[in-house]
Design goal:
The protein has 12 helices and 22 strands. It is α/β, with parallel strands linked by helices. The protein is globular, with a radius of gyration of 24 Å. The chain binds manganese (II) ion (MN) (2 copies).
């Protein structure tokens, strides 16, 4: 008897649905293993410097070579060579040289590893009524009220006057002390409770409590009047060889303390700090490590700094770091260098701007555009454009490029969905996309959806997290 043919529907309806049923047992096991490793990464990579350093260590283990040394040696490099280039320890460029000449363009995935946080002010240490506090200046878009009463960690670097570096990481180990910012008790908070959320806790009130016990009598110094601060100054000197003036040459960040966690009784999500945008950065880095053989076009992942404050500065995407890196790559892969080849390499490139997007949250449906916002565990989200109001400031990807990207995803079993930021008149946001579109290359935003973006603890769906990795890998191989 002939097999009964399955009846095909007369039309294909484009559905947004969770993707779990599309994954077999083997793929689900890979998803879980990937997310375990991801949780480990974001638990340890609490700052852009740490996110950079851990990715760099992983790259060295995978056989990536220090590109600056290759440049210095001036020897030509061959297809298949794996390189990394660090931009002042905060932005990292990883590439696998392809068989095609660089002027044909690169397949790029760009993400960022800086996250909203509290930075210490340049002169942060003060005593008030026998308490010692640290004065902070917030970095990136935060809702200030979310940062009080949490266990906080302190991470960063201090360069002493002789140039030696002191690395500080306090608050992550189970027996480490943590820090906190106090809040008003509700019993006395009637006036505070009547204020708008944005002003109830002002930025200047984000002072981190670090000590309350004056110096022991035997260690007292009559010259120093503030006795609790004296205890901290002595601790800094004895433990790290630091003086108060050393804060002038420091970058110290206050972040939530403790590791990221599996979220939900079904463990289908991840709760953790800094998922915007280390979730995409980790995916990009893992994807480039897992490329088999030599790709046809050169594949490159860039995990960059300063996105949260506009991609400005020496280590932001606005700097010429990547352009210079591509120029050096061209120089080491051709017989005769010309500027035109670098321009061609950049213009012919294709890029996924790998940054997170907002999920449709039924709890805040009034700002949502439910037919167009990504939903949790429905796949990696493609955002044709971001921006605010009438698409202001967005890098609107072309329909032609969208066609190419969705075909790559469909052919490689990447579960994906389209996304938009929310109701059109409500707000807006941007990514690094337009800095790359500036070179004339094709760019589209493609990232993992989050609940509670920019909060001390952000939520992401594990299926989406894993699909980020799959999407970036497919793009490296096929774009
Ligand atoms: Mn972001
Ligand atoms: Mn952000």
């Amino acid at each position: 008897m002939a097999k009964k043919e399955k009846k095909k529907p007369s039309v294909n309806v484009w559905k947004r649905e969770q993707g779990w049923d599309k994954l077999d047992k083997d793929e689900l096991a890979k998803l879980d293993a990937y997310c375990d490793e991801y949780i480990d990464y974001i638990s340890n990579a609490k700052t852009e410097r740490l996110a950079h350093d851990i990715a760099l260590q992983m790259a060295v283990k995978k056989g990536f070579k220090n590109f600056d040394e290759l440049v210095k040696a001036g020897k030509k490099i061959k297809p298949g060579t794996k390189i990394y280039r660090s931009c002042y320890g905060k932005t990292l460029f990883l590439a696998v040289i392809g068989n095609e000449p660089l002027e044909n363009g690169l397949n790029l995935v760009g993400s960022h590893i800086d996250c909203p946080r509290l930075d210490l002010k340049p002169s942060p240490l003060y005593e008030d009524d026998k308490l010692v506090l640290l004065d902070t200046h917030y970095y990136g878009g935060i809702k200030k009220y979310q940062w009080v009463t949490l266990p906080l960690a302190l991470h960063g670097v201090i360069f002493k006057k002789d140039g030696t570096k002191v690395q500080l990481d306090i608050g992550e180990k189970p027996d480490d002390p943590v820090l906190t910012i106090t809040d008003l008790l509700p019993h006395l908070g009637r006036d505070q409770a009547g204020k708008p959320l944005g002003t109830a806790i002002p930025g200047e009130a984000l002072n981190v409590l670090i000590a309350s016990r004056p110096i022991d009598k035997e260690n007292d110094d009559k010259e120093v009047g503030e006795k609790t601060k004296l205890r901290i100054l002595k601790l800094m000197k004895d433990t790290y060889g630091l003086e108060e003036e050393d804060f002038a040459s420091a970058e110290i960040e206050i972040t939530p303390a403790g590791p990221a966690r599996h979220l939900g009784l079904d463990k289908s999500m991840v709760l953790g700090y800094g998922q915007d945008d280390r979730v995409c950065a980790f995916g990009a880095v893992k994807a480039i490590f897992d490329l088999k053989g030599t790709p046809s076009r050169t594949a490159a992942a860039v995990i960059c700094d300063k996105e949260e404050i506009g991609s400005v500065g020496q280590t932001g995407m606005e700097s010429t770091f990547m352009e210079n890196t591509v120029a050096e790559l061209v120089n080491l892969t051709v017989d005769k260098y010309s500027d035109l080849l670098t321009r061609r390499a950049l213009e012919h490139s294709a890029m996924l701007s790998a940054d997170v997007c907002a999920l449709h949250d039924p709890g805040f449906g009034d700002v949502s555009s439910p037919h167009n916002m990504p939903k949790i565990n429905c796949g990696i989200a493609l955002m044709k454009y971001t921006g605010g109001g009438g698409k202001g400031g967005s890098s609107d990807a072309s329909a032609e490029f969208m066609s190419k990207v969705r075909t790559i995803f469909n052919d490689n079993k990447v579960i994906w969905q389209m996304g938009e930021l929310g109701k059109v008149d409500v707000g807006g946001g941007g990514t690094i996309a337009h800095f790359l579109a500036h070179y004339g290359m094709n760019v589209v935003d493609c990232g993992v959806g989050l609940f509670s973006m920019h909060a001390p603890y952000e939520t992401a769906g594990k299926l989406d997290i894993y699909m980020g990795y799959k999407a970036y890998k497919a793009f490296f191989e096929k774009a």
